[in-house]
Amino acid sequence: MHAFRRLLAVTTLAAAATLAMAQPLAAPRAYAPLPATAPAAQLVDINTATAAQLAALPGIGTVYSGKIIAGRPYTAKTQLVQKGILPQATYNKIQALIIAKQK
């Protein structure tokens, strides 16, 4: 009986190894790179956006959205840091998501 169990175990392991080697390796998937910036239609204009639109940006919230609105108009989005409205780290999170359109 002991020899039968050993033979069964060896046979099972050999079959599993054979199946594992017989299956071809899958080719790595090709993923499209993420865009560095949001499409222009999805950019949030800091000169016209509502408080809710601004607050939805990463790291902004209600306090910073109020400060952004109070500091309008902007000729460049970098003015958010230059005017002391946002810290550099917060600006870095949203810079690819915003724009400062001119009239």
Description:
The model has no long low-confidence stretch (mean pLDDT 83). The radius of gyration is 29 Å and the shape is rod-shaped. It is built from five helices and two strands. It has a domain at 40-99: DNA polymerase, domain 1, CATH 1.10.150.320. The N and C termini lie far apart (90 Å). The chain is mainly α and 103 residues long.
Strand line-up in the sheet with most strands: 1-2
Give the low-pLDDT segments: none
Q: Assign the CATH architecture of the domain at 40-99.
A: Orthogonal Bundle
Secondary-structure element sequence? HEHHHHE
CATH class type of the domain at 40-99: Mainly Alpha
- The percentage helix is 40-55%
Strand portion = under 5%
Which secondary structure elements does this structure contain, and how are they paired or packed?
Layout: H1 2-22, E1 44-45, H2 51-55, H3 61-70, H4 79-82, H5 88-94, E2 98-99
Parallel strand pairs: 1-2
